[in-house]
Design a protein that fits this description.
about 150 residues, alpha+beta, Aminopeptidase, 7-stranded mixed β-sheet, about 30% helix
């Protein structure tokens, strides 16, 4: 995994990024289950935890359906992490993840904080996306698995 950070905003056109409401919880839950599968994680997805953290998600709707989202995770006094970047398969390749991440990154930077994220070194699509938004690799880290 590479740890990346961005300190400069990214110019984007008006986006329709929203903070989800309680009515979006189950749709995010279904997407998060797919996110765990796509990322080959062994994590369990808890709809109650999603509901409790709903204000940390940022979503993009297409035709009334959540197409792409990410999550802001506070990590340090001067930094916030972008996490759980996901786009439904049928919406991939259309730039929706870029819109969501750019908007979230700009939101973090507007608060005077550094935007950070972790990315799998082997995920070329995500690496290309984050680099295009101005994220720079700070260091690589190992992963320990039992």
């Amino acid at each position: 995994m590479d740890f990346m950070e961005a300190a400069e905003p990214f110019a984007i056109n008006d986006t329709n990024i929203e903070i989800p409401t309680d009515g979006d919880c189950m749709e995010i839950y279904e997407c998060m289950k797919q996110f765990v599968i796509d990322c080959n994680l062994k994590a369990t997805v808890d709809p109650e935890r999603i509901k409790a953290k709903l204000g940390e998600y940022r979503i993009l709707r297409i035709d009334g359906r959540i197409a792409s989202f990410d999550k802001i995770t506070p990590v340090l006094e001067n930094a916030m992490k972008i996490d759980c970047v996901f786009t439904r398969e049928e919406y991939r390749g259309k730039g929706y993840a870029k819109q969501v991440v750019a908007s979230t990154m700009n939101e973090i930077l507007a608060k005077g904080k550094t935007a950070t994220l972790n990315v799998d070194r082997s995920n070329q699509i995500s690496n290309r996306l984050y680099k295009s938004l101005g994220f720079k690799k700070v260091f690589s880290q190992s992963e320990y698995r039992q």
